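Lab notebook, bench 4. Still working through the backlog of constructs that have no structural model yet. Next entry is a single chain of 511 residues. Request: give me the structure tokens for it.
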Amino acid sequence: MPLTVKPRRPRASRIAVTLLSGLLPVILGSAILYMQAGRTLEQSTRLTAEEAIRQFELMLDNTAQAARELLPLAGQSCIDVNLALREQVTRRPFVRSTNLVWDDVNYCSSLFGDFHEKIDAGDYSDGKLALMKGNLVTPNSAVLVYRISEGKKGALSTLDGYHLSNVLRMIGHSTVLRLQVGSNWLSADGQFHQEALPALPVAQTRLDSTRYAFSVTAGFPEGETWRYMSSEYPPLFSLLIFFGVVSGCIGHFLQKRSTSPSHELQRAMEAAEFVPYFQPVVHGDSKKWSGAEVLMRWNHPKEGLVRPDLFIPFAEHSGLIVPMTRSLMQQTAQLLGPVSASFNEPFHIGINITASHCKDLKLVEDCRQFIGAFVPGTINLVLELTERQLIEPTPVTLQLFEQLHELGVMIAIDDFGTGHSSLGYLRQFNVDFLKIDQSFVAMIGADALSRHILDSIIELSAKLDLGIVAEGVETTEQSDYLSAHGVNFLQGYLFGRPMPGADFLSALSHR
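Model written out:
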């Protein structure tokens, strides 16, 4: 970042400041970062366990409903009711099989028809739930059995263990998640276990469902705090080293000491040096342009085009990101508003916001003025939530998002799948789109695990009826894969790099 300079100070002063400002930030910062990482891990395991509980309860609601609908049929001939059993399996996505019970005997199965198996209520936690290794068809694939009874009547519905382990993998991310029913438990790799549940040494959290007889344990293995610092939060650790180096340089070269970043950003904003760049977003099926993401660039008079990662963090920290975004929206409206009448269908315009935008309701007025600059019905404004700062669900925040939706503004979660707050945002805010992080897209055809995570995110968005945008699409193979899996919108260098306003208008006119 370009900075102004100050006069050089004596050598003794430079050495003293170098020692104090270079060593202390690294030593003290490392200790603080370690403690903060520990607190973050504890919060992460609790949030992850809560989300896992919620997902399993939703799946069990579906499974229990199948059993309740079949219970009145118990006692009837298996031939007469077998079609009804199979219908429940067909209609409900998580149900593997259904069964009818009479006088504690499983006599009819959707898999085998006439059947005879003694049912012992003692095998079921709270008489209703049992985690088993498998059934006769798939003996090595775990199943979760829900049991309901009324007198001699009974019904069983079986939840496929694949879906259970898939939830553990998708929600757990880097957290170790385990589902326990009675003395049996299931790990994220889909393995069924009967031995005692081993303890997790770091940030272990156990939560019991208040509606069903199961629990979820979340935690991390030994040494995860240091691994967490180095792998999950590399920008923070790098930033600590960066500040240590900068502090040492400040002490040793006081004659070149920079002014505070906020002053330089304020100067650049007053000089209108922050300009919008546009990256096209295309339809997943037709590859026609559907809109664009508006990206901020710093057009510095001496340094040229400055990368956003060099100034956006400072803008967020200083609070200047809000007026900078407002200026970006005004420039975008002035550029695209006059040509909006030529749009054949609503043009999606995506703009990034952070936690700083959500502290008051001024963003609503900014969006109202932005939309008012376009011909009515010609655009869809999409605000993309970034996760560099956590957005707390305060009353003001909830009111803000409610008013934005009333205004017609859509909400997207940016880089979904990489941040720990993504699933929390789904639960707390009324989200319209998920944007898949480019790290998952880059692994298409190369990494099976990332592809499974990608497929799970796509499946999750479909079940929640959310639109989905894939970022970082650079190859035809990635584009074809995402289109085949029903991804609504694609964005990446394959379709266009970020470009200045004039170039974007020129390209748009040819589209």
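Notes after review: The chain has 15 helices and 21 strands. Residues 1-9 have pLDDT under 50 and may be disordered. Flag for follow-up if needed.
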